[in-house]
Amino acid sequence: MLRVAIAGLGTVGAAVVRQLRANADSIALRTGRPVALTAVSARNKNRSRDCDLSGIEWVDDPCALAERADVDVIVELIGGAEGVARQLAEAALSKGKHFVTANKALIAKHGPALAALAEQSGAQMSFEAAVAGGIPVIKALREGLAGDTVDTVYGILNGTCNYILTRMRAEKLPFSVVLADAQKNGYAEADPSSDIDGHDTANKLAILTSLAFGVAPDISAVRVEGIRNITLADIQFADELGCRIKLLGVARKASDGIEQGVRPTLVPQSSPLAAVEGTFNSVLLQGQRVGTITLEGRGAGGDPTGNAVVADLMDIARGTRTFAFGVPAGRLGLLKPGNPRPICYYMRLQVQDRPGVVADVGGIMRDENLSFASLIQRGHSKMDSVPVVITTHEGDAEAMRRAVEKIARLPAVMEYPCLIPIEDDAP
Amino acid sequence: MLRVAIAGLGTVGAAVVRQLRANADSIALRTGRPVALTAVSARNKNRSRDCDLSGIEWVDDPCALAERADVDVIVELIGGAEGVARQLAEAALSKGKHFVTANKALIAKHGPALAALAEQSGAQMSFEAAVAGGIPVIKALREGLAGDTVDTVYGILNGTCNYILTRMRAEKLPFSVVLADAQKNGYAEADPSSDIDGHDTANKLAILTSLAFGVAPDISAVRVEGIRNITLADIQFADELGCRIKLLGVARKASDGIEQGVRPTLVPQSSPLAAVEGTFNSVLLQGQRVGTITLEGRGAGGDPTGNAVVADLMDIARGTRTFAFGVPAGRLGLLKPGNPRPICYYMRLQVQDRPGVVADVGGIMRDENLSFASLIQRGHSKMDSVPVVITTHEGDAEAMRRAVEKIARLPAVMEYPCLIPIEDDAP
Q1: Are residues A251 and A152 in contact, defined by beta-carbon separation less than 8 angstroms?
Q2: What distance in Å separates the CA atoms of residue B251 and residue B226, rounded to the nearest whole number?
Q3: Which range (A63-77, B142-156, B310-324, B368-382) has the least confidence?
Q4: d(CA A115, CA A108)
Q5: Contact at 8 Å (CB) between A247 and A161?
Q6: According to the model, what pLDDT value does residue B339 have?
Q7: I need a surface site. Which of A166, A374, B2, B327 has the fewest CB within 10 A?
């Protein structure tokens, strides 16, 4: 029998309890071994939860779970890179107890140290639930593509942002209105910053980067930009250009290292990512041999994420042992941040409608060796400013940054330009 | 060290040899154990192959590989449900040698018996490469969704058919012209029947059904229809209806058993399957907890399929052991074929253009309790027949079959009607 303790009983924890109970027979049949819940711990014992805790011991101090002789695996669903979650992970793994978590911040920050502890004590550490909820993307990278050489990993990794961008486009609503509504109906947190400013995506991306390229996750090497500054106008101009705006996490082998970025991005409507709407997630893995593999599904929610936790538990019950990041912790390389490769850009300017503005912008771009792919100017007004949207051919990121700074200083340019990269490498 | 022998050195075999050599260090690092090729066997020793066989012993009789003390795993890439492939599988597994194969016909027909042999001798049998080439769909079902209850598995499982249907639509060419060209450029076999008549898809579907529902694969329970009778007109009418025609394999839990079908199907352009073009494959898995997961990628080709073989070998090298079909062979249920659920249909009639035809067709449908969703009549001619396309609301499959037979007997109906189901359950 595999004896499991769960620390943290929010929506994911409750879903794990339900699934382990409801499918106990099938789980035992498939792993050759019953998987039983022996103890749980959460902050508030009296809160009503959508799961049956009868016959399971309640423990007030989650870290005490690591001390119990009747526990083989600890499932950590508390969250946070430090504090109780980290203490529990260290206590469990140093005692040889297997450790399963959905905690992306913990794994992105302390994953290699925890993996080393696991290797020393012979325990398994697994975190399928930490990235893309119900989509088995960790398994696909760690095992399915283990024999290949991965060049690129990218995708839509945050359901809240994708939900907001989807509704802005479908209902022609501004960001602030959709965000407020998403908070009201539970699709966004009261403090939405972790999602909409891209940090959640960055944690997940750092973990995928580690698995894909055999380096330690390095969240500080991720260039992060969220969706706060995306306007309805940008979404509508993108539409006109045959594109959708998505918040992408992108990790790519560059000539000088590994480029990691989280940023709003224009993707062509023909790209599989363009069709990923609402709270769905999608990840593209590009291997030298296997080509492009796309995995899509529910990126959050109790049941999908709980299923990922149960899958990890079943692997442990079967006796499957893998290195947490695909390679031994001591062999994880140091991530060398690479420069972004040349890429096409979308730039929206708010300008006074007077002759010569486009010539001025064009001159700046020419001096930086950047070229126009298209230009849209909407409306006409002597008094007010009008939007001008420019797309570029592939250009150097640094040159583009310099150009934007110079363009921002032109007297006829009324706001700081909005610059969004365009990704166009559909399989 | 894990010592591997390969039987069959076509495009997939050569790709496996190349990958094991090129990535030997990374494979050893990731599995904790070198994976080395010790022997190979193929029909023609003198054929030039795109791989380096130096230092690897050549064995004329593939079955002799099972006798060798210096071989731990046998990779079977010969093909066919009987003959050498089956003998080799039985010889290897009864001697406790692990067995990895890309042979869908063998697994669909003899899989459970071979899995029982593997369990008796303590060997692992794996066949990721047998379904959907480079896409890790077997792993996703056997491990990722192992704790969930799967309701539906469906997808595009044959690259040749999808390539033909894609080109017919894109280039407005009839089936026969595209098939001939596909044969010329290697996308279709000289004898294309296994692909275009749906048998290849049926084998793959039977394997997925087994993994999804815990039953023995039963190819005889798959209703199979290929793409030979799909005309350019059907593709263009589908387009007009906002749909694409795809050859789908569908396995679905019905109230009375499990429905398995392979058939050309109209899928709405908004469905993720509609965007899967050319030789790509895509599989949708619907679990009660995890929701819909879509996996897309290259469904064939030496390198993608070879990568799936190498991933199986790496799992074995790590010591991972799973039941070949997810549950012990002795616990695989017997598949009870279920009746298709009510579904919408597309029907194309070739009729004489005279009053009353639609009324006659409508009467037959009314008597079978079937109702029109739309009707398209194109052109107008006193002399020739004209096409009439009808789509229906959800109707019973048996009733629809009876209606088609009666409609075929109407004097004004000039050809046997073309009937294609419409699948509309995008996630």
Answers
A1: yes
A2: 16
A3: B368-382
A4: 12
A5: yes
A6: 85
A7: A374
- The average pLDDT across A409-427 equals 87
As a whole number of angstroms, the distance between CA B305 and CA B299 comes to 8
User: Cα separation of B37 and B306, whole Å?
Assistant: 14
CB contacts of B29 in chain A (<8 Å) are 327-328, 331
The SS3 assignment for A170 reads helix
In angstroms, the CA A361 to CA A403 distance is: 9
pLDDT at A297: 96
> Identity (one letter) of the amino acid at B117?
L
How high is the pLDDT of residue B378? 74
Q: Residue B27 and residue A306: Cβ atoms within 8 Å?
A: no
Least confident range of A133-147, A349-363, A403-417, B121-135: A349-363
Query: What tokens appear for B348 in the block?
Result: 């194309």
Write out residues 34-73 of A within 8 Å (CB-CB) of B: none
Beta strand residue intervals within A269-328, DSSP E = 280-287, 291-298
Please give the Cα distance from B233 to B11 (Å, whole number): 36
Q: Does A144 touch chain B (CB under 8 A)?
A: yes
What are the structure tokens assigned to A254, written together?
Answer: 């560059």
What value of ipTM does the predicted structure carry?
Answer: 0.94
Residue A201 confidence (pLDDT) = 98
Which residue in this structure is represented by tokens 């970025």? A261
**A135 at the B interface (CB within 8 A)?**
yes
Q: Which residues contact A139 (CB under 8 A, 6 or more apart)?
A: A128, A311, B136, B139, B140, B143, B144
H-assigned helices in A319-393: 357-367
Task: For residue A135, give every residue at least 6 positions away whose Cβ sits within 8 Å of its Cβ, in sequence order, or none.
Answer: A281, A283, A295, A296, A297, A298, A299, B293
For residue B252, the cross-strand partners are B152, B259
With a cut of 80, say whether residue B379 has pLDDT above it.
Answer: no
Q: Is the pLDDT of residue A384 over 90?
A: no
pTM: 0.95
For tokens 């972004």, the residue is A340
Distance CA A61, CA A43 (A): 9
CB B326 within 8 A of CB B368: no
Q: CB–CB of A112/A136 below 8 Å?
A: no
CB atoms < 10 A from the CB of B37, how many?
A: 21
Q: Is the pLDDT of residue B312 over 90?
A: yes
CB within 8 Å of B370: residues ≥ 6 apart:
B392, B393, B395, B396, B399, B400, B403
B204 has catalytic annotation: yes
Query: Are the beta carbons of A331 and B149 separated by less than 8 Å?
Result: no
Spell out the domains of chain A, with CATH numbers in brackets.
2-130 (3.40.50.720), 137-299 (3.30.360.10), 344-422 (3.30.70.260)
Residue B425: the pLDDT is 65
Tell me which of A204, A246, A253, A336 is the catalytic residue.
A204
Which chain B residues have a beta carbon less than 8 Å from that of A327? 29-30
